[in-house]
Amino acid sequence: MYAIIETGGKQVRVAEGDVIDVELLSQEGNAIQFDQVLFINDGTSIQIGTPHLAGCAVQGELLGEAKGPKVINFKYKRRKNSHRKVGHRQRYSRVKITKIVGSAK
After folding, report:
1. What is the chain's mean pLDDT, rounded?
2. Which candidate in 32, 33, 44, 102 could, as Cys together with 56 as Cys, close a disulfide (CB 3.0–4.6 Å)?
3. CA distances (Å), 74 to each of 2, 82, 84, in order?
4. No. of H helices and E strands in the chain?
């Protein structure tokens, strides 16, 4: 069984037991719930929302924060002795999916 959820402006395919990185969440505590479920497939049937499924949710456990890969931005102007180097590492929340509530009917 898997579901497609929307979080942080992105769509993510999740199944029970998956560990995913999502945009940084400002929630305290370990339990988290994603209510914007777009799609559920339980192996025999599928359910597609328009755009979201009512009464369906994905529950997860907040494991902590993680950093993405370093992205380097380098600007250079030739013959001007001018250059600028900036690095950035995006912060993510790491979530373990524990349960998919609601089923395809």
Report:
1. 93
2. 102
3. 40, 11, 6
4. 0, 8
